Amino acid sequence: MLISNDLKFLNKDNINLVYNYECNSGIVVNNTILKFLKEKDSDRLEKYINEDTKKALVNANVIIYNKDYYIDKIWTGKYIKDKYEKQDLNINFIYFHVTNRCNLNCEYCYQKENLTTESDNLKTEDIFKIIDKFDRFKIQKIVFTGGECTLRNDLIDILRYCKNKGIHTEIITNGVNLYNNVYSFDLLESVDKLTISLDSFNDNHNLRKGLNINKLREYLISIPIKYSEKISINTVISDKNVDDYEEIHEFCRTYNFKSKACLRMPNNFSDIDCLPDKNYLKNSLEFTTNDNIGCSNCSCGLNIISLDQYGNIYLCQSLMKKELVLANIFDNNWEEKLMEKINKINLLHDISYTNENCKKCEVKHICRGGCPAIRYNLFKSFIEVEPEFCKYLQIVSENKLINSVKSSLRRRS
Questions:
Q1: What φ, ψ does residue 45 adopt, rounded to 5°?
Q2: What is the pLDDT of residue 339?
Q3: For residues 84 and 347, is the Cβ–Cβ distance under 8 A?
Q4: Predicted structure pTM score
């Protein structure tokens, strides 16, 4: 019996996770097994474990009896290449930016360069026609965003149109038009999920210029309890508000809202300096699992696309740039154009088998080079990685591993 040389050991909240970073597999072990594995003491380990534990350790690629079997379990670039090359166009999730107007000026907005004060390009009937064009794909979910989508006065009509088609709907909003009573609770009646951006209850830490935090808080408190399960509060974590999330989390728990937090997404190199301290991330698991940063499950261009108010189609809502338009929904052959562009671009999603630094990384299968949009924002390229940001990706990926184990253990209990 051999102990694999490709093991990473993680411990959090009395959970010992042994992770094989070449085979992308792991197992939770007790302190004694952990000690033997770290010391490479295969003789004492073999005497200590029973047959069931031995089988589990083999399945997790922690111990090896058959080298050929083990080599076959090592992940390679072929897996990723096949994943993208063999996919047909199978869109089931759309981010629909129905306006480029906004009533705030957020410091970190990824859409800032696309915002405008001009009238919306798409009329209500145009939006209906666009939604109809996806009928054959049996769209499961459309997220309406912008800009600020509540600036449109036809939003409820659009939501009801989707509902009649059986499409799950979500709105991402800054909340201004909610606390200003532009929309009543009819909006909550019509939508399946309402995501409101809120980074802090402290005005001094507010990076969303123009937001009245107290009015938003009062609005949230006033929401009838029958709608509370539809509400999700999204918090972007930076060095400014790193100590504020716990208050928001407790607020959401009190009013039965969902809460979610993610790291600030760098749009340029200077934004990396605005990220929270790495030591804080190491000690805080809850908000570091967002796929915006380490996107091991990125499906952009496979079954997720983004649409702007001109009908242009993009891989992702964070990659809505003129040079990255894949097709236009109003083109007669938009599906063919989309598939052709996706086949060329998607193989660049995962660089963990092509980038030399990524190849050596112990969390490459979790991180996979991080979010392609971040790489493009920083380098105007999908294949480069910023070394300093990699340190954040590593912490996020390690926390993802531990969180996945904790979730699995909770489901079993």
A1: -65, -45
A2: 85
A3: yes
A4: 0.87
